[in-house]
């Protein structure tokens, strides 16, 4: 998908850091509002957060990890036996 994009490694690390921070903030927002919204409101917001995180994964982090797979910590975790 993004295999043709060339990105400097320092830039890739910055993008990764900001993208992961954005995911953390979005996840924290769900925890913060969970008890303060109606069930329907919460579900709508949860869907928006999920779509946003998915976009960050597919449109930002995939560019970084395609160029520098070694930055993807999840891809390099040893499997538990």
Overview of the structural elements:
By secondary structure, the protein is mainly α. The protein has one domain. Helix 1 runs antiparallel to helix 2. The longest helix is centred in the middle third of the chain and has 29 residues. It is elongated. The mean pLDDT is 89.
Number of helices: 2
Order of helices and strands: HH
Give average pLDDT, whole number: 89
Query: Sheet bearing the most strands, described?
Result: none
Count the E strands.
0
Structural class estimated from helices and strands: mainly alpha
Distance linking N and C termini:
33 Å
Helix content: 55-70%
Shape: elongated
CA-atom Rg in angstroms: 16 Å
Instruction: Provide the low-confidence segments as ranges.
Output: none
Number of domains: 1
Strand proportion: under 5%
Task: List descriptors.
67% helix; 2 helices; single chain; mainly alpha; 81 residues
In short:
With 81 residues, the protein is mainly alpha-helical. 67% of the residues lie in helices and 0% in strands.
Secondary-structure map:
Elements: H1 9-33, H2 39-67
Helix pairs in contact: 1-2
């Amino acid at each position: 998908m993004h295999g043709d994009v060339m990105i400097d490694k320092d830039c890739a690390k910055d993008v990764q850091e900001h993208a992961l921070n954005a995911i953390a903030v979005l996840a924290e927002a769900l925890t913060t509002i969970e008890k303060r919204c109606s069930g329907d409101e919460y579900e709508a917001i949860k869907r928006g957060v999920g779509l946003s995180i998915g976009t960050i994964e597919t449109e930002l982090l995939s560019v970084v990890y395609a160029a520098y797979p070694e930055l993807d910590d999840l891809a390099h975790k040893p499997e538990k036996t």
